[in-house]
Write a structure and sequence with these properties.
It is built from 17 helices and two strands. By secondary structure, it is mainly α. It is found in: Membrane.
């Protein structure tokens, strides 16, 4: 079935390309659809695999393409040329090298190829969004799509809670993946409203995000999303105070106050009345296994190989990881340790640089370009990425398709606005004077 979807996606590409060429004034719709597609989880993701290993215990399970890939490629091929290059390609190249080199020590090199392929899909997404989202209409279309995606996930969460699920994962493989995805998108939508947007889809998306966080029971998402909202509001007011912002901030505080009790109820149900700040022994065991693996393999064991090596070479057993399938089939709950174990210290540093540099540049841009049309959304993207840098100490979700794709959206929004500001400060290139043909017939003959 997945191979059928693969060919259907390939066949749909000429149709998408033709529609974008025939209806350029509907380009906003394409960005709305793209934003919504990024929220399709494992249960409803329309991915086709030319090579798929559903039984592989890693963060990537094959070489796949999806309608989002086809749409992103069509957007790249039909857009108007823009002066200058997007930033961040350098750090992307460094991380791509780390992933590629990790195939050499890998026990199963093809599984590492899966990780390289997924990152190539991320770069296509970055190029498609960053190339045009300096345009306010396309940027709003993309965020409207994010709002739609959150509404779909909230619908699944409500249905799951009504059927007795304690930690509702929506359509994702795990509730923590949905939680990290939600905290990033929540800050993007809130930043858009603070910039003056009146989109009802974005407002509904924020409500949906609060429902998801309350029903998911992820402590990291609850704490960091709440902290992110407060930090973003304070920084936004530091940029500029407006009556609209004060109204939105008041509504935001009220919404957090309403959502907080439901979140605490989910946490209480999850932990059975025990302390919700207790660190599980399983996480410590995972970290012991990852550190031992990294110490024995300074260049890594290969991208997408952690679970295989941890079980096969006895790292999980020696670290005390329980024998339950759910524990033995997951990577370490720390993205940085996972990167170190799989791609070595070089890969870990490249991964950190890829996240930290856009976050710092986004925050710097937001405060040094206070009159930039997209500065408020760049601020939201910068805060979201900064919080993700913190959250990665407790989750590996940054290596999954959905979370990595949304982080690429943040980088693209930041990068696109930086390039637009550069172009606005450059004088337009002077047209070259036409070269007149030399009329040799009018010259006097040389005797």
């Amino acid at each position: 079935m997945t191979l059928v979807i693969f060919f259907l996606v390939l066949l749909s590409f000429p149709l998408i390309l033709g529609l974008l060429k025939s209806y350029p004034h509907r380009r906003v719709w394409a960005f709305t659809v793209l934003g919504a597609l990024l929220f399709l989880g494992d249960e409803i993701r329309l991915e086709g695999f030319i090579i798929g290993w559903p039984g592989w215990f890693g963060t990537v399970r094959g070489i796949a393409i999806s309608p989002a890939d086809a749409l992103a490629l069509a957007l790249v091929m039909t857009r108007r040329p823009v002066r200058g290059n997007l930033p961040f390609w350098g750090v992307f190249a460094v991380y791509a090298v780390a992933l590629t080199v990790s195939m050499m020590p890998a026990s199963v090199p093809m599984a590492s190829v899966f990780a390289v392929w997924q990152f190539a899909r991320m770069l296509l997404l970055f190029s498609a969004i960053g190339g045009e989202c300096f345009r306010p209409d396309l940027r709003q279309g993309l965020l409207n799509g994010c709002g739609l995606g959150l509404m779909v996930q909230a619908g699944f969460v409500i249905w799951q809670k009504l059927h007795g699920v304690v930690q509702a994962p929506g359509t994702m493989a795990h509730q923590n993946i949905l939680g990290m995805l939600t905290e990033v998108s929540l800050l993007l939508l809130l930043a858009s409203l603070l910039s003056g947007s009146r989109s009802k889809l974005q407002m509904a998306g924020i409500v949906a995000a609060l429902i998801i966080i309350a029903g998911g029971g992820s402590r990291g998402a609850l704490v960091l999303a709440g902290s992110g909202v407060v930090i973003l509001m304070i920084l936004s007011l530091a940029r500029r105070v407006t009556p609209t912002k004060m109204t939105i901030i008041g509504a935001g505080v009220l919404a957090l106050a309403v959502a907080a009790p439901f979140s605490l109820m989910t946490l209480n149900h999850r932990f059975g009345g025990k302390s919700v700040i207790t660190q599980e022994d399983e996480r410590n065991s995972f970290e012991k296994a990852a550190k031992a693996m990294a110490a024995n393999h300074p260049f890594g064991v290969g991208a997408n190989q952690f679970v295989l090596v941890s079980n096969r070479d006895g790292y999980a057993a020696r670290a005390g990881v329980p024998w339950q399938v759910n524990d033995r089939s997951m990577p370490v709950h720390n993205a940085y340790l996972l990167a170190r174990a799989e791609t070595g210290l070089f890969g870990e540093l490249a991964f950190i640089l890829m996240l930290v540099l856009p976050a710092v540049r986004g925050l710097w841009f937001a405060f040094t370009n206070k009159r930039s049309p997209g500065g408020e959304i760049v601020l939201g993207a910068g805060v979201a990425m900064a919080l993700n840098v913190v959250h990665n100490n407790f989750e590996f979700a940054a290596f999954t398709y959905n979370v990595l794709a949304l982080l690429m959206v943040c980088m693209a929004l930041i990068g696109g606005e930086i390039r637009a500001a550069r172009n606005a400060g450059r004088p337009a290139p002077k047209p070259k004077a036409p070269v007149r043909p030399i009329n040799t017939m009018s010259r006097p003959a040389v005797s």
